[in-house]
Amino acid sequence: MIRYSLVENNLTPDPDDHVAGVQPIGTKTMEQVVDMMISRGSTVTKAEALSVFEELTLAMVQVVRDGYNVVTPLFNASVSIVGVFTNANDVFNPSRHELKVRIKPGLRMKEAVNKMKVEKVATVKPMPVLQSFKDITSATESDVLTPGGVGQIMGTNLKFNSAEATQGVFFTGSNGTTIKAETIVSNMPSEVIFVIPATLTAGTYSISVRSVLKNTKDLREGFLIDDVTVK
User: Which run of H or E residues covers position 129?
Assistant: First the structure.
């Protein structure tokens, strides 16, 4: 069941516009997914499953690096090139062009999405809502993270107490490691501008804002719906 609530859309001039904010139950790491698999009666041990997944990951990364597309039941991966070529004789230049990995849902994932049920819920419990993320350095939205660059989040209920270690903008890697953005440039209810941690390594991350909202006492966390990637 996918639960969502509607919040005001601050990205358009129409005061009546709203957007859906999916309210996820939480985030699962690969280890937690393997634990779920084992709990269903799989004869494969956790160590074996994680080892196979690591080997599968290495193999898929290698075939993509070799120039192939990857098609799996869960996702399809391909590589594209962005940037302007000045003429037909121009060649790839890392200062003007960039390789991007494109990930799209595979057949099994598409079938699962088509069967998902959705439920609209009242926004009884206010929480940070992240509507968009922009990596200023690469001029991309909800796609790339540039370590040491500047990031911008737009949404609602984003403002937090930057003096509190538990509040702020956080990046959670696929391995469960979480890193906080320490330098905040602008901290407003509808916009947060910050320096992306330079310590982020290559991989996929979820972005979240943690805050104790006005007239509340508990820490609340909102996530960007799209994961972003450090190349």
Answer: strand 129-135
For the chain, 231 residues long, give each residue's pLDDT as a single digit of tens. 999 988 778 778 888 899 898 888 777 888 899 999 999 988 999 999 999 999 999 999 999 999 999 999 999 999 999 999 999 999 999 999 999 999 999 999 999 999 999 999 876 678 899 999 999 999 999 999 999 999 999 999 999 999 999 999 999 998 889 999 999 999 999 999 999 999 999 999 999 999 999 878 889 999 999 999 998
Q: 144 has which bridge partners? A: 229
Domain ranges within the chain, ordered by starting residue: 69-116, 127-230
SS3 of residue 79 by DSSP? strand
Q: For residues 220 and 126, what is the distance between their CA atoms, to the nearest angstrom?
A: 8
Lookup: tokens for 107: 């057949």
Do residues 222 and 207 lie in contact, with contact meaning Cβ atoms separated by under 8 Å? no
Strands 2-8 and 118-120: parallel
Question: Domain 127-230: which CATH class?
Answer: mainly beta
For 134, the enclosing helix (H) or strand (E) is strand 129-135
Q: Characterize the bridge pairing of strands 150-156 and 178-180.
A: unpaired
**Is the CB of residue 7 less than 8 Å from the CB of residue 129?**
yes
Phi/psi-derived region of residue 124, left when phi > 0, alpha when psi is between -120 and 50, beta in every other case:
alpha
DSSP letters for 17-33: -EEEEE--S----HHHH
User: How many Å apart are CA 143 and CA 39, to the nearest integer?
Assistant: 34
